[in-house]
Specification:
The complex is a heterodimer of chains A (about 170) and B (about 60).
Chain A lengths: L6 E4 L3 E5 L9 H5 L19 H10 L5 E5 L5 H7 L20 E5 L5 E4 L2 E4 L5 E2 L4 E4 L14 H4 L12
Antiparallel strand pairs in A: 1-2, 2-3, 4-5, 5-8, 6-7
Chain B lengths: L5 E5 L5 E4 L2 E4 L5 E3 L4 E3 L14 H5 L4
Antiparallel strand pairs in B: 1-2, 2-5, 3-4
The chains are: A alpha+beta (about 170), B mainly beta (about 60).
Chain lengths: ~170, ~60
């Protein structure tokens, strides 16, 4: 636990631990829950992006020991201390598809965002090029407070991508 | 060109225009579209999701 690259993130209830050296880039975390685990953002883990229950579910699916979690009441003294350390600017994140010639992958998440991976550029509504990373997620519910990106609001408003109600 | 980045253009109060080389897959993993440009709904109200059908104008969508 002494690797200076290691990080921990909390929502007050649980703490998620990130050990970059153990990551095999299986990409399970951000495929399942981009609102919380987004390698294109700093910090790359946003504990407010989903309910605790959902975060635990996805951390448990990590095939390595790279992501782990604990209830805050179970933290050791050292872990509690680490909680108060400021997040340094430099932060290692899981690697995504890089240097690939493959066409950009665009995946529609059920009742959720548009998840994009690959070689792409984003032009904002104001015609500015937005900072490009290898991976991002665009809002599809219309209610994000971080437009054009997803911030997890679709869960709160129970967004559905089934368009039956509007049957023309 | 083979290596040109895919362009995602955010249209103010409207859809997301996607052009270039891409593959769009649905929640079930099925390939939906590979040729652009396409306009993806951002307002959440299109009856032709994931594509835009102009509904954002009726609802006065803005970010």
């Amino acid at each position: 636990m002494d690797d200076p690259r290691n990080r921990q993130y909390t929502n007050g209830e649980i703490t998620v631990f990130w050990v970059p050296s153990k990551c095999i880039h299986a990409t399970t975390c951000f495929r399942e829950l981009i609102e919380v685990f987004n390698p294109g953002r700093r910090p790359w883990v946003n504990m407010e992006g989903a309910p605790t229950r959902k975060i635990i579910e996805v951390v448990n699916k990590c095939p390595t020991q790279s992501l782990a979690w604990k209830y805050n009441k179970d933290l050791t003294e050292a872990e509690q201390k680490a909680q108060r350390v400021e997040e340094p600017k430099m932060e290692e994140t899981p690697k995504t598809l890089s240097g690939s010639n493959a066409p950009t992958s665009i995946r529609l998440m059920e009742d959720g965002p548009i998840v994009v991976e690959g070689n792409f550029k984003i032009i904002s509504a104001e015609n500015q090029e937005l900072k490009t990373t290898l991976m991002t997620s665009f809002c599809r519910c219309g209610a994000s407070r971080n437009m054009p990106f997803c911030d997890g609001t679709h869960r709160k408003i129970n967004f559905t991508d089934k368009s039956a109600e509007d049957g023309e | 060109m083979e290596n040109d980045p895919t362009i995602f253009q955010v249209i103010a109060g409207g859809p997301l225009k996607v052009s270039g080389r891409f593959r769009i897959k649905g929640p079930d993993g099925k390939l939906i579209k590979t040729e652009g440009p396409v306009f993806l709904c951002r307002c959440g109200q299109s009856s032709n999701k994931p594509f835009c059908n102009g509904k954002h104008k009726q609802i006065g969508f803005s970010e």
